[in-house]
Amino acid sequence: MQSSWILAIRSVRPLRRLAPTLTPRATCLSLLASRRHFQTSSPRPQDINPAIEDMAPKAPKFEIKTPKGTRDWSGSDMVLREKIFRTITNVFKRHGGVTIDTPVFELKEILAGKYGEDSKLIYDLADQGGELCSLRYDLTVPFARFLAMNKDVSQIKRYHIAKVYRRDQPAVKKGRMREFYQCDFDIAGLYDPMIPDAEIIRIINEVFEGLGWQGKYTIKLNSRKILDGIFQVCGVPDASIRPISSAVDKLDKMPWEDVRKEMVEEKGLAPEVADKIGKYVVLKGKRELLEQLQKDEELAANASMQQGFADMDLLFTYLDAFNAGHSVSFDLSLARGLDYYTGVIYEVVTEGSAPKVSAASADAEKSKKKKGKAGEDEDRSDDPTVGIGSVAAGGRYDNLVGMFSGKTQVPCVGISFGIDRIFSIMRANQAKKERKNEVDVFVMAFGGGKDFTGLLKERSEIAARLWDANIKAEFLYKVKPKLQNQFKAAEANGVPFALILGEDELAQGKIKIKEMGLPEDHPLKEGELIDLKNLAKEVQVRIDRKKQLDAIIEQAEGLRVVGGIKGEDVKVEQQAKEKEGEVTPTPPVQTEEVKAEN
Amino acid sequence: MQSSWILAIRSVRPLRRLAPTLTPRATCLSLLASRRHFQTSSPRPQDINPAIEDMAPKAPKFEIKTPKGTRDWSGSDMVLREKIFRTITNVFKRHGGVTIDTPVFELKEILAGKYGEDSKLIYDLADQGGELCSLRYDLTVPFARFLAMNKDVSQIKRYHIAKVYRRDQPAVKKGRMREFYQCDFDIAGLYDPMIPDAEIIRIINEVFEGLGWQGKYTIKLNSRKILDGIFQVCGVPDASIRPISSAVDKLDKMPWEDVRKEMVEEKGLAPEVADKIGKYVVLKGKRELLEQLQKDEELAANASMQQGFADMDLLFTYLDAFNAGHSVSFDLSLARGLDYYTGVIYEVVTEGSAPKVSAASADAEKSKKKKGKAGEDEDRSDDPTVGIGSVAAGGRYDNLVGMFSGKTQVPCVGISFGIDRIFSIMRANQAKKERKNEVDVFVMAFGGGKDFTGLLKERSEIAARLWDANIKAEFLYKVKPKLQNQFKAAEANGVPFALILGEDELAQGKIKIKEMGLPEDHPLKEGELIDLKNLAKEVQVRIDRKKQLDAIIEQAEGLRVVGGIKGEDVKVEQQAKEKEGEVTPTPPVQTEEVKAEN
């Protein structure tokens, strides 16, 4: 066995003597397969044999890139995104959520007729024989298809985090891509009214608090029933209700004058009807707005409105019990584009997610758009009409499943988080970059002079023992590494501990552990000798201790940040702590009606 | 505020009085949007107003299904798959792995010319204007494209768990799909030879041990250099090396006679050359096989062979240090289909993953295939020639990145785990199904008679307090639920604890906690009263205690299973424990050569 390690040590160079002498082969790939120089250790790009270099592949003629509107995720970006996923998944599971996974493409017919005029943005697969398929446009329609197929699933709280595809104008810097993640939580099933709807809003709160947004977001809330009631009362013809609703939905990007223009000039609405609508849709508030609307006799007489009032009244009541109402804004301008909503709708915005646009600049953009398809594929990140948009949106859709299953309806309410937009905002506000990997220990060899073997065998064995103990560890893939290079590699990834092997220490059954980045005057700056016998335990204890310390420091830094937030930002957690032990039973309420029904 | 809760309690029925009186609208969807009956609480499918029912959507004319070769994942299947992902990710991170995410489709040109005759299985996107794209076929080519684009990334240990797409014959039951997960770990960069190659094999061990396979798998190992050396020595013309190599690769599915036939009849190899190959490719063993080959003078004179010998010698040495050699079989029949491998190659098989097939049945299958395209799209799960296949495979590919970047080569070695196949095997061997969700507490109301309010407000508040404390909790979305139905719901999901609110207990500031499923004679069968003040703490203590207990029981059951395994299965962990404290330093070795070089 010993002799092999001699070979290992020798192998650093002797193999180079085996010059590639292979004859040319039929294909370029096979030819390349016979090249050897990357297998030997020493050669760096500059000392490659020029004769071989001539056989190297030429760079391809096309540009090496990802398709337009898509990107790779790696490095600290990827770490941050994974962290966002973990936080959100944790919230979903806390509420009993289970996850499902559907194919990335669906039969073309499944998606057809679900997205109105946005259907043109659907990606189709080429017809290569067999079924015609399209890439999914969202996660909601596949979920409805899933429910229609699985009749035994009549109640489910499901979450789904996956990519969806839209052949849209990309605005990369603002997180609007053609391939992007959606992250959906939906509650399907027949329940007593508004309880799941309220839990969804509680979940929205938990997600953004979990992400550290500390109340700096607004959950805009409305109801399709209230909106439809307003349109009916104002005198919008039934056939125009959805188009007029779409126009109202643009109020977050366009001033009222432009929306009114669209209603009257493009959609043929009578000007006085538009003006009447205008009085309502600018209203926003909390529960008191609901009470105000309920006093409006004209509205109160409308059937759709009555249903909407009852829903919202219950919803506000439940939100109080869930302690989830503080970020909610009842906003009559919220309409949501999609056809399939039937009840409560909501959309979450944060500072800067919906830029104020003057009528003039919107006009300029419009005329630019009409100029033709020249710039169709360009990145629209610098277009002022493209905001970050909402960071989450959803609502109740009670009839979508029935579009697939016929009679069997499964009412649903859900929320979709725009992960890429959330990421863009958090990335911009990030104080320090995330570490790229999670390695806790870098195993090094110390030694010098002619006799230094590099201790590769010992480093390998130590690493293997750490891995066996589920400790994340690395070492340099070099037979005889310099100590300096080993420290550099550890520092580059922010590895917190170095385990340093030396021949003298090994002979005594010891190894040195050194915490990286300690200040000069720290008593443990030079490291500690620990027994090889208890290696895993000794290392684990130090990792745990450091993690606890880091968590305390991070918490302390977090508190400092919270201190800087404006006073009226109510913190869910603080409130929760104040509430501890505060639950008082409601005395049993008896009304004639309840009595009569029992 | 009190009045709203009266409304909530009342709302169970009164809202039904609001009969839908809306007029028909332009679109079916808008019409449906006005339907109300799913918003009210009591109606079940059977008491839907028949007049409305007529307006319900008709079931669509096409079959509601997922595209051929794809499936939905949900329920306990999904939980098991997530568990597999977690185990594998844990191993990858332990070795310093970082993850990247690439788009699901690539420019068509990126994939072109990388997969030989399998290129016909690539899914293309339809040409809808703009770039031509294809769905990724594997994760390796996108990784190579990523490295070519990111010149600053010269060394990386990356993992990537994502779906890939192949227009292949599906064999659903055996886990061979058109959309399936791959799970790749690759080490890219220029290092001293064979150290990363050995770490990949160590990782393979850790993954399958982590999944509980306890040594019941074989890592077949070979080297393209050794294989090419054999072909050269046997007299295979250079142009035929890759086709002959492909034929050899079929030895796990076909008997030697058939492979020989293909070589001679289809690929025009001289019969005596084929026979000479036949003597080598049946050999398998461990390190002693390498020593045996090294003694073969004809082989030893071949340059490619010399490089292969040196590689394998080092590899076996490093595998010993990593304690990772026990499941390895040096197997000269392993050739791997893909063109791009340049060095060591490996493939992991497990019992039953490669069914023995007689020449006759293979012939039958062949003639069936030639019959035409009639059955092209059928599920081939019952086809005996389709085994589960390998559960992981990979190797060294030093020249792939250069195909994109031209001169800048980044040598790579990696492994790809076939998640769906691993899943199929584990699903079949699974003793008990996984729980569908992770809820720890079900919040219930107890009460009876006319005065029972259902305590919805209190249940909501208790649930909100548990969520605040990061405790997973649910309650029934029903204003006045029956206790029996609440227990049923908790049992259906295997929720371990019930928190039961009663008005008398609430008045004393208490609440009952009950562990589900305790035996009749258990002292805590009837539950315990705990203080509402310390709710979260009291609950958390009990959850933690139960989890510890469950872990001990699971471990005990695991040991029982291990006891039944055949004795020669060496267990990595046991060995590791035996080794603790056993690392002995290698005395510094001096050779003339090393001396001279220092």
For the record, the CATH class of the largest domain in chain A is Alpha Beta
Largest interface: A-B, 214 and 211 residues
Tell me the count of domains of chain A. 4
Sheet/helix structural class of chain A: alpha+beta
CATH-defined architecture of the largest domain in chain A: 2-Layer Sandwich
CATH topology group of the largest domain in chain A? BirA Bifunctional Protein, domain 2
Strand order of the largest sheet of chain A: 1-4-5-11-10-9-6-8-7
Task: Summarize this entry quickly.
2 copies of one chain form a homodimer. With 598 residues, chain A is α+β, with helices and mostly antiparallel strands.
Topology, pairings included?
2 copies of one chain form a homodimer.
Chain A: H1 2-10, H2 28-33, H3 50-53, H4 75-94, E1 98-99, E2 105-107, H5 108-111, E3 133-135, H6 140-149, E4 156-165, E5 179-188, H7 195-210, E6 218-223, H8 224-234, H9 241-249, H10 256-266, H11 271-281, E7 284-285, H12 287-295, H13 297-300, H14 303-321, E8 328-331, E9 344-349, H15 359-370, E10 392-397, H16 402-405, E11 412-418, H17 419-429, E12 441-446, H18 456-468, E13 473-475, H19 483-492, E14 497-502, H20 503-507, E15 510-515, E16 528-531, H21 535-563, H22 572-579, H23 592-597
